[in-house]
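Re: weekly structure request thread

Next one in the queue (615 aa):
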Amino acid sequence: MIDKEAAAIAANCRHYAMCKIDYLGTGLCPATKTNHYVSYYPEGRMDLYRALANNAIPVTEGLIDVADTCTLCGICDKQCYFITQLRPERVMKALKDFVDVHLQRRQEVIRIEPDATLRQLREIVGEQYATNDPAHLITYASDPSPVAGFKMPKYVVLPRARDEIARIVKLCNTQALEYIVRGNGSSTMGFAMGSGLIMDTIRMKDIVIDKDRWCAIVEPGVTSFELQQEAVKHGLRVNVGEPAATVCGNLMCSGIFSLFCSSYGTCADNCVNAEFVDREGKVFDLNQRSAPNLFSFEKRDLPMPGICTRAWVKLHPMTEDEEGVLVPFSNFDDALALCEELNRRRIGLAIGMMGGEYISVFMAPTKESAAKIKEIFPQKLGIDSLVLVLGDKYAIEAVKKITNKKVIDNKLFRTLLLGLPNLIDGQWLGLFDDFQTDKPAYEILCRPEMQPLVEAALDPSPATLASVVDHDLRDFFVRLYERPEMTDLVWLNMFRFLSSRMGREKHFVSCIVYAPLDKKEVITGLRDQFKQIADKHNIRNHCGFIMPLDLGKRALLEYDYYLDQTNQDEIERMRKALVEAGGLIESFSARIPGIVWIRYVVNQGFSRMESLLYT
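Done, posted below.
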């Protein structure tokens, strides 16, 4: 009854929750219009099939309903293939087939009776929105984290309002029931899991754009992608995290990380106010004089101060002349120096330094083509690092002047992306043969007179790009890349969904550190030693990105470790590597002022930069 190939696909679900947002304009799984548990989303159905393959749950009424509501529409294949190159529709069909056979054989279907606690929860949120059915519970019980074990909750509840959350907290307190609040659950470190009650905020989706006060008011179920979509309708922008991450959850957990932090700041810089339900079930907001001081920072592990039920998030104006450029470098140090200089001079809205791994998955629609790009950029074009800069025409002119016009502008980027299959073929590199120079090939590539030749050689078009994806998805990719925003550096980095491809080949865990940018040897040292640790444990690794902050005084460094989440040996090696990486950060922090490990920002995401970075 178990399809082994489908079970293998299910076991590889990354839990990035991208199937919960309509980031490709495909619509969402039809079942989720009226059903809001994770089990009804493709991610949850993957977990369900994995559980059945492992004989971890019985066939319950909830499982029957989840399988029955799947229409095999294929939306999940488009969404998941774009990010991870997985084909989950096979899992969806295998789940339906399993249930059909079970019913045909007249095997038992378990009805899970409510207990007293569940009945009280349903009195608060309604019959449909609290459950103890294992088919729903198990989809909240795990994530790909190498350091967090399986935790099966007793209940899942879906509140719709702040007052419902307050009542749930009070009920949990009276019954000594542990509770965990969950945004989209994709923490990748197990923070959204617990053995008591899971409070899923997915129904709390209200967004109010207050243009007069330059802020958006969001409930805790609102994702970064959804808020950015709404802001853009008003000609405005929000500094947000990963697209499927909830805004309140990001703010609460660690503050916002994006390349726009170079101008908009991080942590408390991004919000005006926030409302909480505390551990006693009482409501407070940060502008109350009697409220807990969440703006301060302590370098220690702290518990969650409460459940963020609303946040007033800053809105930022956009101009019509914004564009993006990529500045290539043959060495790490020069790229880092440009990041510092641009941020110090207040040039650009967003600045970030990316290595070959990041830019390859950013551009390539498949892991095979990404691997080839990662070879071609350093070996053939001489590109070790790229600095991405977004800004208005004056900022971009300044970047071109500072770099002597050695930039990949948006037009050339579009050519390289849409001509990617011919780019990785390598024959087009013969264009450079007639140039007698000892300079890196990228300097020739960036010359304006080369643009017509590169276009002729690469034949860029949506059809060209789509030729490397699975045959049955090519028409979809053609239509997708006919949309101009799909090759626009500003739009792509505002909405950020391409960065989710970082986990396409394997799940990844990030070592994230604030560090002084004026001590470049510190950043280089951290990078090199992160690599040494990963190499020692045979863990695939790469420097993700470096983002300048605070007018060039600071930088945020992300170094990524990759693991096969289904391989226990690799999980064990990753655990050892992460322990050593943590010790490395602590040793640097003890010796060098300005080093802050993201571990200590968890649950302190509303702290002020002055408190976080200066004390």
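The chain has a mean pLDDT of 94. The longest strand covers residues 507-516.
Next request, please.
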